[in-house]
Design goal:
By secondary structure, the chain is mainly alpha-helical. Helix content is about 80%, strand content about 0%.
């Protein structure tokens, strides 16, 4: 499959990262509510980035590429 166009890659990446960040920050809020913001941010990134890079963004990119290919396919 050819790579996605840059604007679509940006949208896919943001769409994959945003829910992960929200869920992780919510989960961390119970244990890290009084921690300094830079520490919470670093911990959030340490959790989110590996998950996003290894699984979520590639999955979302493949899904977007399939949808784009289906849309570009001529109708029978």
């Amino acid at each position: 499959m050819p790579p996605l166009p840059l604007p679509l890659r940006i949208i896919v990446t943001w769409s994959a990262l945003f829910p992960l960040v929200v869920v992780v920050q919510f989960a961390l809020s119970f244990i890290a509510h009084d921690w300094p913001t830079p520490v919470v941010t670093a911990l959030t990134l340490a959790i989110v980035v590996p998950i996003a890079v290894a699984w979520v963004v590639p999955f979302a990119s493949r899904l977007a590429a399939r949808l784009l290919a289906r849309r570009r396919r001529p109708a029978p």
